[in-house]
Amino acid sequence: MSDKQTTRPTRNPANQASSINVGHQLLEYNASKRFLRITLDFMNDISPRIFESLIETLPYYRKRVSSVHIRVIFKSRDKDDLNHTHARREILKNVVDQLNRFNRLEEVRFVLNLDYLILNQIEPASAIYGLNFQSWTFDILTDDVEHVQHDSAIDRLLRAQFERNSLVEELDRRHMGSRGSRPDENV
């Protein structure tokens, strides 16, 4: 391939991923280490469009990355608005859905950054339990690092929250499907 072709993002997918990375504030990509850091910044006011573009961008890294670190940052508990819990969970769920399409994953590390552990605040983290890659690790950064052990109280709580959310979504899908397939009563 000529030098001219390798510099045009529309022709070279690897360059396309690099050019996308440069413009996306929630990603850090290291091609030589096949590493991608995804930062879900819920501390600062970020436009929903930024999160949408993150989801649109992730497929470009699908075949380029073997190590992914997901970092979720929350505001301090006295300044955080827990009314955003559902939207935050949906954002992480969409990230997880994209990561489930990555076929070269060897490592996934999930980290929550918060000033104090509040269960209502970390509920969006339950979406990580939808990850197909089974060997992921989970840390919570408060004043010190706490590795979340399998079957610990936090693990059980978030796993149960994930299962509950999945069940509700499945019931909603079935309900919507049955409404659409119901014969018209006026006929």
TrEMBL record:
Q: Which domain of life is it from?
A: Eukaryota
The taxonomy runs: Eukaryota, Fungi, Dikarya, Ascomycota, Pezizomycotina
Q: What is this protein called?
A: Uncharacterized protein
